[in-house]
Amino acid sequence: MTKITYITAEGTPYEVESPNGSSVMEAAIRNGIPGIDADCGGACACATCHVYVDDAWLEVVGEPDAMEEDMLDFAYDVQPNSRLSCQIRVRDEINGLVVRLPERQG
User: Superkingdom, according to UniProt (predicted)?
Assistant: First the structure.
C-alpha cells in the first residue's frame, strides 16, 4: 500500500493508503477526501480533481501529458505544480506523496 497525504485549502491533512495501480483521484474518492469532485470519473475530461503536487514530489510524479495540460486550462488557479489527480498513478515510487487541494474545483 502506498501512503498519500491530501491537504485541504484550509490546511487539514488527510493521510490514506491506496493500492498500486489506482489513481490518486480514486484513492481520494474511496476515502472521502473533501475537495476532490471527480465529475468525469477519472477520464481526464474535466478538471475537478485538480491538485498541487508538493515541490519535493514533482520530479517523481512527472509532467502532465498534452491531454492533461489541455484539461488544466479549465482548472481553478493553475500553478506550475498543478496536476489532475486522475492522471497520477499510485505506485511504490510515490509512497509518501503530498498533494494540496485548491480553494475550489473548476
Answer: Bacteria
15-36: average pLDDT: 97
CA distance 99 to 67: 21
Tell me how crowded residue 45 is: count the other CB atoms within 10 A of its CB. Answer: 14
For residue 87, the 8-state DSSP code is G
Helix H or strand E encompassing 28: helix 24-30
CA dist., res. 70 & res. 75, Å (int):
10
pTM of the predicted protein model: 0.95
For 19-90, strand residue ranges (E) read 50-53, 82-84
Give the residue carrying C-alpha cell 498534452. Answer: 66
The pLDDT tens digits for 83-102 are 999 999 999 999 999 999 99
> 53 with 60: CB under 8 angstroms?
no
Question: Cell triple for residue 8?
Answer: 485541504
Q: Give strand ranges (E) for the chain.
A: 2-7, 13-18, 50-53, 82-84, 97-100
